[in-house]
Amino acid sequence: MTRRHGTLGRTASPVPAGATTRREFLKLTLAGGAATLAGSAGLGCLARGADGGAPSKAKRPNIVMLFADDVGWGDLGCFGHPTIQTPNLDRMADEGLRLTSFYSAPWCVPARIELMTGRYMQRTNIRGTSVGGKGGIPDEEVTLAEALKGAGYRTGMMGKWHLGYAQDTFLPTGQGFDYYFGLPYSNDMTKPWVNTNVPLWLYENTKKVENPVNQDTLTTRYTEHAVEFIRKNKEGPFFLYVAYSMAHLPIHTREDFRGKSRAGLYGDVIQTIDWSVGQVLGTLKELGLDENTLVVFSSDNGPWLNLPDRMLQGGNKPWHQGSPGPLRGYKHTTYEGGVREPTIARWPGRIPPGRSSAEMAALMDLYVTFVTLGGGRLPDHPVDGYDLTAFLLGETGRSPRQEYFYFRHVLEGLRVGPWKLRIPDGVELFNLEVDPSERFNRAEDKPEIVERLRKRMEDMAKEVGSKVAEKSK
């Protein structure tokens, strides 16, 4: 099957004959191993054994995804914050690749489904994953953890899930993760911020282990469990997903991290996440896993600067939020500050160090890239990601991603190359190469570009069963 939209194609590997659900898919994949697909990924000696057969576990990389919550493009030292100190993330950037045009989603659920399935949320029909919700990831989806588990990886998750919890099968351990420790949804989904009588529980696998949750120690406990997972699975290959609950409001950190940042409590919270990154990187180095581990850091969406009144209570302050840096907008918007995230990729000996790139990439690309590197199977349905391997490894300076669709509840915009069309607030056209802050509307100057991008949006909306946003007057 070839990619069904976009200007660049790739070959996806089919679901085995007779596999009608992802659990049947996973069962067959586990039985057959990753041998049938190692060649299709174009990995050469990286994933294939010397005899050209099944990929060797020793040669396939461990994969670590570190995913912050509501952290803005401008919140890290290496992305220009003047007072928040992030020495571990800065070192990670110095030793790897800093991506300055990396796209996530306007809020947490679509970001997480994009990472877990490689697809825009509009394709997946996921609903009801917040407090009191009854939904979860549809059975026809193949999660990132399932694909890598099927290729022989040990899989572990710590942190915020937000993709279903009402049934045990909706929790991470029912979606391909061997181990889970964390919250089923956002840390504000309890009184006084949300009017609910459903208690917020901390989970270990499918067991509820703590209520009320001590949020001061969430980041440090996620980190402790992550380090333990790495140590237990050091023989590899493993996939570790750490989805921090911070810096989502209400922000918390342990007492010994408080007062350390010149940027106040929010700075303390970011510096705690930076400490966590240092613990993970330090453990990999100690165990001799550095050169066989790809580590990516990013965030789910921009800072929540447009806070609803319900959040301005219980100790929350308007300044308990981050910064989009030079970008316009914030969480829940499709301006760049809502969806463009500070992202770093590090793989010593494989990713050339000290680079920065403004080439486009997105969460869906990580799904495809991770599965490909791991020798796993890509599903037979349309996937919206591209394989970034050659780009990350410096074999090409161009990312395969040349377009990105800005979905909120409907399709609100499209970027193709430097040009971004956004229509919910009137027809807005920006050249993001020269105007990343989206200050200068070029729509009247470039009607032909507006028309071309609008037509592409209409085609995509039809493909995924969505609508194009109505233009406001």
How does this model look, in words?
The chain has helices at residues 22-32, 87-94, 108-117, 121-124, 144-150, 218-232, 264-286, 336-339, 363-373, 389-392, 447-464; strands at 62-68, 97-103, 154-159, 179-182, 202-204, 207-210, 238-243, 293-299, 340-346, 355-362, 403-407, 411-416, 419-422, 428-431. With 473 residues, it is an alpha/beta fold. It has 2 domains: 62-401, Alkaline Phosphatase, subunit A, CATH 3.40.720.10; 404-464, Arylsulfatase, C-terminal domain. Strand 5 (202-204) and strand 6 form a beta hairpin. Helix 3 runs parallel beside helix 9 (363-373). The chain starts with 21 loop residues before the first helix and ends in a 9-residue tail after the last helix.
Proportion of residues in helical segments: 10-25%
Query: Architecture of the largest domain in CATH?
Result: 3-Layer(aba) Sandwich
**Rg over CA atoms:** 21 Å
Compressed to H and E, one letter per element, the order equals HEHEHHHEEEEHEHEHEEHHEEEEH
Q: Counting H and I runs of at least 4 residues, what is the number of helices?
A: 11
Strand content: 15-25%
- Mean of pLDDT: 90
The low-confidence parts are: 1-20, 30-56
Biggest sheet layout: 10 strands, mixed
Q: Roughly how many Å apart are the termini?
A: 42 Å
The tally of structural domains comes to: 2
Write out the CATH superfamily name of the largest domain.
Alkaline Phosphatase, subunit A
In short:
The chain is of the alpha/beta class. It has eleven helices and 14 strands. β13 and β14 form a beta hairpin.
Name some characteristics of this structure.
single chain; 473 residues; alpha/beta; Alkaline Phosphatase, subunit A; Arylsulfatase, C-terminal domain; 14 strands; 24% helix; 16% strand; globular
